[in-house]
Amino acid sequence: MARHSILHTFYSSTKWRSFRHGLILERGAKCEHCGEPITRPIDIIGHHKVELTPENVHDYNISLNPAMVELICYDCHNKEHKRFGYQGSKEVYLVYGPPMSGKSTHVHQNLKRGDLVVNMDRLYQALSGLPSYDKPDSLFGNVMAVYHVLVDNIRTRLGKWGTAWVVGGYADKFKRERLAEDLGAELVYCEMSIEECMQRLEADEDRRHRQEEWRKYIEKWFETFRQ
Question: For helices 120-128 and 140-155, what crossing angle results, to 10°?
């Protein structure tokens, strides 16, 4: 069954209709984003904070969990999904910090389905077929070529993504701020001391055979970092 059909079946079900009706009775007929009253109940959108997919639609901790559903108007729903007249409101975040500082974790916790993520570690993984922590020097040129294409897509706002996340060390203040200005990006610093990064490295099972290599990555970042 196609993705659309699976989700349509759920939204047409008695279970969802009863759940949504109960939320309206409990919360009232107004948009939980803009606060405006919604005169017709049919116009009240039950918006899932975590977008429903064929994989999670039958997980009722997501699809039928009151804490995961907001009642919003059509206009706010279009803004949330950057539809129709709202594509121009695309947001870009440049997430930077030392190795092992939790940059990828921060993005994973905040991204939404359909966001664009440009992460150097993940690009190495995609192009090499190796784990994200294993970055062959021989592929650096290829990785950078793909990186520049994706960054240019963000600069020109090419594509239907809603939010873009550019992830990397970016220890050099001048280059970091120039890139952020070029992309119209908000800087997000994952702050962590060198001691904390080293402790995380020692506890990381995936990197247990690459401790020395990653210690050098961490040390080099802190040597060149300018806030």
Answer: 130
Q: What is the pLDDT of residues 126-164, one digit of tens each?
A: 999 999 888 899 999 999 999 999 999 999 888 888 899
Q: Give the phi and the psi of residue 159 in degrees, each rounded to 5.
A: 110, 175
Q: Using an 8 Å Cβ cutoff, are 57 and 6 in contact?
A: yes
Q: How far apart are CA 13 and CA 113, in angstroms?
A: 24
**Among candidates 226, 179, 214, which has minimal Cα distance to 99?**
214
What confidence tens digit (pLDDT) does each residue in 42-86 have?
Answer: 899 999 998 898 999 999 999 999 999 999 998 898 888 766 555
What is the reported pTM? 0.70
159 DSSP assignment: S
112 token code pair: 């939404």
Residue type, 75: D
Residue 218 near residue 99 (C-beta atoms within 8 A): yes
CB environment 134-148: b (16+ within 10 A), e (fewer): bbeeeeeeebeeebe
Domains in the chain: ranges and CATH = 3-80 (no CATH), 90-224 (3.40.50.300)
**Residue 19: helix, strand or coil by DSSP?**
helix
Alpha helices in 96-193 (DSSP H): 103-110, 120-128, 140-155, 173-183
Q: Strand pairing partners for 132?
A: none
The angle subtended at Cα 82 by Cα 76 and Cα 86, nearest 5°, is: 85
